[in-house]
Structures are given as structure tokens and as C-alpha cells.
Design goal:
It is a single chain. This protein is of the alpha+beta class. It has a single domain, classed as Alpha-Beta Plaits. Helix content is 30%, strand content 37%. The protein has 3 helices and 4 strands. A 4-stranded antiparallel β-sheet has the order 2-3-1-4, covered by helices on one side. The two termini are 14 Å apart.
């Protein structure tokens, strides 16, 4: 079942996102990510992440989110995980 992981960066994260990005991309490449990418402020600056992940359970989505190098490095201020039923654009 797809799960949406919506994560917002800490305001004081500075260059942490850029420094951790290669590890993050390698990590997410090992999972069934339906789509994802950075969230952007109006000025184009990255401010978070949105990932739609196909996993068997919410617990698996939580494990994925907790193991993400961005999360391990402390990049995120807030992370929410929500089940998702695709209807449009499928």
C-alpha cells in the first residue's frame, strides 16, 4: 500500500541537506519509491521532502523514514506518514 512521507526541514539545517544528499539518494534507491522529491519554498529553496513509498504496512513506512540518512542526521523538524489510495493520474 502506498504511504506518503511528508518531511519538513529544520529552519537551522543549513547545508545539512546538501551534505547528506548522496547518502539519502543511495538509501531511497533500495526501496519501491513510486515518486518523490524535494519540497520547495516560493524562492526555489529546498525545505523538505515528499516520498510516496509502496510498502506492506505503516510500520514499514515508519522504518523507512527512521532509517533515511536525512532523518538520522537530524535534518527534519517534522515528519508525517499517511496511507494513500491513488485515484487520479493512475
Amino acid at each position: 500500500m502506498p504511504h506518503v512521507i511528508h518531511a519538513l526541514d529544520r529552519a537551522d539545517a543549513g547545508d545539512l541537506r546538501a551534505a547528506t544528499r548522496p547518502e539519502h539518494l543511495a538509501y531511497v534507491g533500495g526501496f519501491d519509491v513510486l515518486y518523490g522529491g524535494p519540497l520547495l519554498e516560493d524562492n526555489g529553496r529546498m525545505c523538505g521532502s515528499l516520498i510516496v513509498l509502496d510498502v506492506d504496512s505503516r510500520e514499514a513506512a515508519e522504518e523507512f523514514a527512521a532509517g533515511d540518512p536525512y532523518a538520522v542526521a537530524g535534518l527534519f523538524e517534522r515528519v508525517t506518514i499517511t496511507g494513500f489510495r491513488p485515484i487520479l493520474g493512475t
